[in-house]
Amino acid sequence: MKKYNTIIIGAGPAGLFLAKNLAENNIKTLVIEKMSSPGKKLLITGGGMCNLSRTDSTQDFLSHYGTASRFLGNSFANLSPEDTVEWFEKRNLPLFSREDNKIFPKSKKAEDVLKTLLDNRFELITNYKIENIKRENGYYIIDNIYQSTNLVIATGGMSFPSTGATGDGYNYAKSFKHNIKAARASLASFKIISENVSQIEGISLQNVTITLDDLYSKKKKIRKNTDDLIFTRIGISGPVVLDISKYATTEQSISLNFNKQIEKESNNKMLSNSIKQQTGLPSRFINYLLKSLSIIDDKTINISKKKVTSINEKLRKWDFQISLKGQLKGAMSTEGGIKLNEVDKKTLESKLSEHLYFCGEVLDYSGDCGGYNLQACWSTAYSVYLGIKEQLN
Length: 393
Ligand SMILES: Cc1cc2nc3c(=O)[nH]c(=O)nc-3n(C[C@H](O)[C@H](O)[C@H](O)COP(=O)(O)OP(=O)(O)OC[C@H]3O[C@@H](n4cnc5c(N)ncnc54)[C@H](O)[C@@H]3O)c2cc1C
What we know:
There is one protein chain. The protein has 2 domains: about 1-185 and about 335-390, FAD/NAD(P)-binding domain; about 190-325, no CATH class. The protein is built from 11 helices and 18 strands. The radius of gyration is 24 Å and the shape is elongated. Helix content is about 25%, strand content about 25%. By secondary structure, the chain is an alpha+beta fold. The longest helix has 21 residues, at about 370-390. The strands form 4 sheets. Strands 1, 2, 6, 7, 8, 9 and 18 form a 7-stranded mixed β-sheet that branches. The structure holds flavin-adenine dinucleotide.
């Protein structure tokens, strides 16, 4: 049997950050990864540039994780965004921040973040499919080959499964009696099923308000968000959609307010030109709008007040039916996971099985778009590191 102090399942940002911290303290660590190489998802973050944190204060950060914020507060107290910057820079990864407060490596390469996390002081095995985990005589034993005092589940959520995040960690946790909140997509695009938007694919609009009923909340809250939107071949995406997506159920209606209105004009211009001049909306979008209202693009002199009213109504409240089928495949984050009330918020140790820990997206939290999810990985992983280190004192 090969013996370790800590075995970490999953070589994503959470698992690797933890492994690096443990290795720097000479704590014997093994990381088991099922894919052919570590950090597959990390490498595609921020469009390959890795938006690893933000310049915002901890207080501001904590308003971006919904109900999980209180739980995560302890991890942020252990490793704040500021500490994170210092951590990476101390390990020779220079960073820079943009005007939108997002922090990236100066090289703009996610690959360099991964290189910083890898360290030959911990063992990493890839392409390994775990068959069995058990706890015997106070040790965790994997496949009767690897034995460890501590076991850390850092297997991520279920979004973008092509990177290895397929929910295995939920099953490992269940075998130790943990309960799982069903996973669903977060930071995802919406597929529109009520109409075909392929003709307006690629159009991006600023300052669009999206409204949906949060059917998941017991109080049936109305959720609203205003930001940039982009039409895709099959639906809508962009920051306004990504940040609200975790509140949508599988099929529901949403409404868009384009925050534009027109006046009735009679200056003999074509209606589409007049709308473009008054709203700044792109022609392709205006043509689609008129078509959806069955309004013929005519001289404004012939346009009735009723038609102007119906255009304004549509610009203020355009209803679409959406579907989330297959959405996890392309989502950037997972809502749901290991229930937080079964995990010690200071050390992230399981309350149900001693020396079992969790970090990263496998836990039931999901941050907004823009560096919040990776920061939660660094902070939760650091808490586990402190918890394990404390055992040794
Ligand atoms: C396209 C995209 C862009 C993103 N961009 C950003 C961004 O710029 N900023 C940001 O903050 N967040 C971003 N995110 C979110 C961020 O990448 C995730 O929140 C983060 O990767 C989660 O880290 P993790 O270590 O918990 O899990 P993961 O990164 O999913 O890593 C888990 C690892 O565990 C391995 N694993 C799973 N099951 C097993 C098993 N049974 N045995 C062994 N290994 C296993 C997986 O193969 C994987 O390597 C992005 C996500 C996507 C999909």
